[in-house]
């Protein structure tokens, strides 16, 4: 008899369970199962991908925007403060004078002070007429805001009485006549006088603390500002503090200068650092807000995952019963569906991260910023999508694991 | 030696008021190495009995012992482990997973044992050869005939070296020639591996071949033929 000769095979199976192998095999199984539900999976995957893309894109855009504005400040240095008349208070607005400039220069912690008269006039060159910001400045102004001449020169002490003008790079481009921007030696008509262009500045990014954008302003000597506009009072004082001086202290002594004495004058003192702090705070709030919006889309995607999984549980009752008959424990069934939900949402997450970075790159390119992929958005995007998958996959998975093997087999 | 013992088992389906008493006071012993046929008219409770014997369901009352262990009140995990290692199932409708190949279907029980996948596949391949499907390892169920599918299912049931093989009308979906081959396979496995077989059948010819017949009648084992030997 064959049976007599039968030797029972050794059964190493009863011991030697290997957890790692078990989970790896379960994961492979999950991926195969997902492939079978391709079409519906794809829809849920799309939801997760869009949600993740939104989070990643918004965070990247927010970060790039913040870096961009930081770069603007750093271009001119973060040591600039401005004093301007405070029009918000009742009473006569303060008058800023040349004497203030000298006295502020003597304050401790102050390195340089430049007066500024903001005017708005129409510039004419040949047939071109362009309303433009014009600033009456003293020679120190250019060094103070680190503006350099790309052609010609900036203003000097010798220009005090001359009808000369220095143009910002952007303004020069806009004044181009037949494709020829004004060059040193060109004549521009402002306020009824011909002004000779003596220099065109190198391009620069606007510094939010200044009352003007250097790039799109025409600069004339402060003493000649009256020729351009009837009202040529000093509107602002631009101050550079010494690198060692604290922002707070310099702001305080500037304020004290105007509020002290028998006739206090209301002024506003603003510093670059103050603005930087306010802007980063604001950017952080924006980033959080935008991330929350992305989170909502992720949740919508998560509900999609839950739907796919719940329908899968219903459709695969027989399979669940069969697997239980073959020895799957409730936790194995739960793990199978969780792994599927995780695989689904994680592949959506990967697609979403790529999509989000692409969107952020396009946005940055459009806005003229330098694009740098936001590093924390990668783990955040993947983490959020897999978290969503696990969270929304848990209910269907538990439902599946609670099926009775015999009922599941009948497919009721 | 008794492998499975039912003692005064009752089982009803459905909820309290509308409950249907399906098994009434069923007691039986399945002895190691035997081939046992369970026969009876449709609705007499054969499938219900088999699901209790296979630890897929629990009795309402009465005792159920498997290899000496009281399993009526065992945990779900314990029952799963016993089903995985000690029991094999064959169903009328085959119940193969359509997207898996024959080899993967047969290797499925090893997934729940933590057996290395390669070892599981090797054992699945040799079992498929054993049932005559050595040339169909990588075919999917839809590419196979009914008889071939049921062979795959039989291979899956015995690949884990179970003590008890349960089959619920395994030939119900097959023509008579193919059915004979499947039944031959059961007897061959019983002889080769020593696996105990209990199968539900409507076919008197098949029942006649089995060493023992249990007759179900309206939820009771017919005591007129208690463990009769052919
Ligand atoms: N889940 C269930 N709920 C209610 N009644 C059921 C259920 N399963 C089976 N039954 C009933 O129990 C009886 C026995 O069913 P079954 O064990 O499948 O019989 P057999 O396999 O002998 O045809 C039948 O009357 C059937 O309608
Ligand atoms: Mg039946």
UniProtKB/TrEMBL annotation, chain A:
UniProt entry keywords in alphabetical sequence: Cell membrane, Membrane, Transmembrane, Transmembrane helix
Superkingdom: Bacteria
Main location per the UniProt record: membrane
Domain ABC3 transporter permease C-terminal: 293-405
MacB-like periplasmic core domain residues: 41-255
Membrane topology: Multi-pass membrane protein
Listed transmembrane segments: 42-62, 288-314, 335-365, 377-395
Lineage of the species this protein comes from: Bacteria, Pseudomonadati, Pseudomonadota, Alphaproteobacteria, Rhodospirillales
Protein name in the entry: ABC transporter permease
Compartments (UniProt record): Cell membrane
């Amino acid at each position: 008899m064959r049976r007599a000769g039968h030797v029972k095979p050794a059964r190493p199976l009863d011991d030697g369970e290997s957890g790692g192998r078990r989970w790896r095999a379960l994961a492979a199984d999950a991926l195969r199962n997902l492939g079978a539900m391709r079409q519906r999976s794809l829809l849920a995957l799309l939801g997760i991908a869009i949600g993740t893309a939104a989070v990643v894109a918004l965070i990247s855009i927010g970060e790039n925007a913040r870096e961009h504005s930081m770069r603007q400040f750093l271009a001119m240095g973060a040591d600039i403060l401005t004093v301007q008349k405070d029009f918000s208070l009742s009473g006569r607005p303060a008058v800023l004078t040349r004497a203030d400039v000298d006295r502020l220069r003597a304050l401790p912690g102050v390195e340089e002070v430049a007066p500024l008269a903001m005017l708005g006039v129409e510039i004419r060159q040949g047939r071109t007429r362009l309303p433009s910001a014009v600033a009456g400045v003293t020679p120190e102004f250019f060094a103070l805001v680190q503006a350099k001449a790309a052609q010609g020169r900036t203003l000097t002490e010798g220009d005090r009485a001359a009808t000369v003008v220095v143009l910002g790079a952007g303004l020069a481009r806009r004044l181009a006549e037949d494709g020829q921007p004004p060059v040193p030696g060109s004549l521009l008509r402002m306020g009824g006088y011909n002004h000779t262009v003596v220099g065109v500045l190198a391009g620069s990014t606007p510094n939010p603390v200044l009352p003007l954008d250097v790039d799109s302003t025409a600069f004339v000597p402060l003493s000649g500002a009256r020729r351009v506009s009837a009202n040529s009072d000093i509107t602002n004082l631009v101050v550079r503090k010494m690198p060692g001086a604290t922002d707070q202290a310099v702001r305080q002594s500037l304020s004290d200068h105007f509020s002290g004495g028998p006739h206090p004058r209301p002024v506003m003192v603003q510093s670059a650092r103050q603005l930087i702090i306010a802007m980063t705070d604001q950017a952080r709030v924006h980033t959080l807000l935008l991330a929350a919006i992305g989170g909502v889309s992720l949740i919508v995607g998560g509900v999609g995952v839950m739907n796919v999984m719940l329908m899968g549980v219903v459709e695969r009752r027989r399979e669940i019963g069969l697997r239980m008959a073959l020895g799957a424990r409730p936790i194995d069934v739960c793990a199978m569906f969780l792994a599927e939900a995780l695989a689904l949402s994680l592949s959506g997450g990967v697609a979403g991260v790529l999509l989000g970075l692409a969107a952020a790159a396009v946005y940055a390119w459009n806005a003229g910023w330098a694009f740098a992929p936001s590093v924390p958005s990668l783990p955040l995007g993947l983490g959020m999508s897999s978290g969503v998958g696990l969270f929304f996959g848990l209910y269907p998975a538990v439902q599946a694991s609670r099926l009775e093997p015999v009922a599941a087999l009948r497919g009721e | 030696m008794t492998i499975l013992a039912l003692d005064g088992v009752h089982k009803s389906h459905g909820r309290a008021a509308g409950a249907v008493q399906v098994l009434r006071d069923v007691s039986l012993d399945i002895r190691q190495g035997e081939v046992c046929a369970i026969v009876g008219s449709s609705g007499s409770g054969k499938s219900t009995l088999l699901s209790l014997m296979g630890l897929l369901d629990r009795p309402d009352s009465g005792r159920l012992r498997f290899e000496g262990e009281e399993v009526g009140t065992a945990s779900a995990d314990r029952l799963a482990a016993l089903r995985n290692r000690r029991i094999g199932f064959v169903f009328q409708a085959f119940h193969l997973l359509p997207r898996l190949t024959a080899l993967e279907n047969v290797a499925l029980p090893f997934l729940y044992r933590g057996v290395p996948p390669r070892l599981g596949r090797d054992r699945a391949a040799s079992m498929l050869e054993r049932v005559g499907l050595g040339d169909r390892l990588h075919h999917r169920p839809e590419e196979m005939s009914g008889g071939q599918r049921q062979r795959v299912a039989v291979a899956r049931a015995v690949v884990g070296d179970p003590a008890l093989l349960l089959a619920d009308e395994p030939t119900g979906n097959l023509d008579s020639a193919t059915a004979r081959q499947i039944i031959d396979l059961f007897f061959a496995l019983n002889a080769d591996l020593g696996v105990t077989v209990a199968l539900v059948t409507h076919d008197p010819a098949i029942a006649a071949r089995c060493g023992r017949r249990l007759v179900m009648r309206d939820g009771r084992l017919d005591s007129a033929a208690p463990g009769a030997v052919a």
